[in-house]
Amino acid sequence: MSACAEMTKRINKMKRLIILGGGESGVGTALLGKAKGYEVFVSDKGKIKDKYKNVLLNNEIEFEDEQHTEIKILNADIVMKSPGIPDKVALVKRIREAGIKVVSEIEFASKFTESILIAITGSNGKTTTATLTHHLLHQDLDVGLAGNIGDSFAKQILEKNHDNYVLEISSFQLDDIIDFKPKIAILTNITPDHLDRYDYKFENYIASKFRVVENQTEDDYFIYDADDEVILEYLKRHQIQSKKLPFSLTKVVDEGAYLDKNNIVITIDNNKIIMPTNNLALEGKHNVKNAMAASTVAHLLKIRKQTIRESLENFNGVEHRLEHVLKINKVQYINDSKATNVNATYFALESMDAPTVWIVGGVDKGNEYRELFPFVNEKVKAIICLGTDNAKLIESFGNMVDVVVETQYMSEAVKIAYKLASAGDNVLLSPACASFDLFENYEDRGRQFKNAVRNL
Predict the structure, then answer these.
(1) 197 contacts 172 by C-beta, under 8 angstroms
(2) 122 annotated among ligand-binding-site residues
(3) Mean pLDDT across the stretch 347-355?
(4) Tell me: the pLDDT tens digits for 133-166?
(5) Could you tell me the CA-to-CA distances from 99 to 79, 96, 223, 384 in Å, in that order?
(6) What residue ranges do the domains of the chain occupy?
(7) CATH match of 323-454 with 3.90.190.20
(8) Is residue 127 marked as binding?
C-alpha cells in the first residue's frame, strides 16, 4: 500500500460512513469507503438486489434491507444518500437535524481522485451527450464513463481510477454536493422536470442544475446551450467564475460552438475547427447540439480533428433514446422510453416524419403538455395511454385525435398499436412520464416494449 493510502486510512480511521440505498452508487461507495478506512454500514428501506448483496457479503460490509435501524444510522460521521431518496423523508430530516453531513456519491468519490472531471447535466440530452463525449475521447485518452451510467463513479475510482471521467449527473446528485468541482461542466438545457422534488417551484430546480458550476474557478470551463432562455436568464442574474463556452444553432459565438450552414464551428482561444454535420450518425436538431457540446470538450482536451469527425459519424446513440427497433409491415417501431419528461418527448415528436401512433403515460411529475399540441395535431393519428392514471393525458389530448385507448400492459399497448398503424406509419413509445407506476425503471419499460414488438 502506498504512503498516501496509508495516510488516508489513518486520517479516516474509525470514521463511520452510513450509506442509504443499496444500489449501484451505494454499493460502489461502500467498497470505496471501506478501502479508505471507513467503518461502513449500508441501509436500504427496500430489498437489496442479490447481485449487490453478494458484493457486500464478499467484502464483509455490514448491511440491512427492508428497514432502516435509526440507532445504527444516527451515529454516523457522514451519510451518503442515494439520489432517489428525497430530503423530505423523515429519516433524512433527522440525520440533518443531528448535524451529520449528507453527501451524494459524486461528492464522496471525488475526494479520492485527481482525475479531470467532465460533469454533464441538463433536463434532456445528458445521457447522449455523456456517451458521445466518452466516445470522442476514449481513443486518445484514458477515460471512464460514470454517474448515472454503468459502473458507479466510486467503484471505478477504486478499481481503475482513470485519468479522466465523463460523469452524467442528475439534479438529485447535485443537491448533495459540497466541494465537487468539475474541470469541465456541461449544461445541455433546462426545462421543467422533477418538480415534485422541488416543491413544484421551477426556480428551485434551475438552481439545482446550476450547482454543477458553483465550485468552479476561472481555470475551469462551462459549456452551455446559448439558445436556452432559462439558462440565459439565470446567467444574467448570477456571476459564474468559470470560462463560458456557449453553443448555438441560431447565433454566432466568438468562443464556443455554433452552426454555420451545415458545419459546426468550434473556437477556443482563437483555435478554430470545423466539423461537417452532413454525416452525423444521430438525427435531429437536438443531436446537433449534443454533438456541439461533446465536440467542444474534445477540442478542449486536444483530441485530433479527424478523430472527432470520425467519432461523430460512427456513434450509434444510446439504448431507449429514439432507438429504431424493427420495421414490421412497413411500420417503424421506435423505443424512446428514456423520454421521462415533456421536453424529451417534444424532441421525439418533432423528429417524426410520418403519421405516428404514440404510446404515452406513466407517473406525471407536474407535466405541462401544451408545448406538444402542435406536433400532436400535425403528426399523431392515435394515442395509447399506458399508465395507472391517464386522466390528465385524456383531458389534454382527447379532442385532438380520433382514437385514444387506455391500457396498463405493454404487450397490449403494442398489439393495439399494431392494429392502428398503417404502412408508412411510426409507432413511438415516448412516455413523457416516469415509469414507476407499472415498471421497475425506464430501461425495464423500454425492454418490455422491444420484446413486445419482437413478439408481434
Answers:
(1) yes
(2) yes
(3) 91
(4) 999 999 999 999 999 888 899 999 999 989 999 9
(5) 11, 5, 35, 49
(6) 14-103, 107-314, 323-454
(7) yes
(8) yes
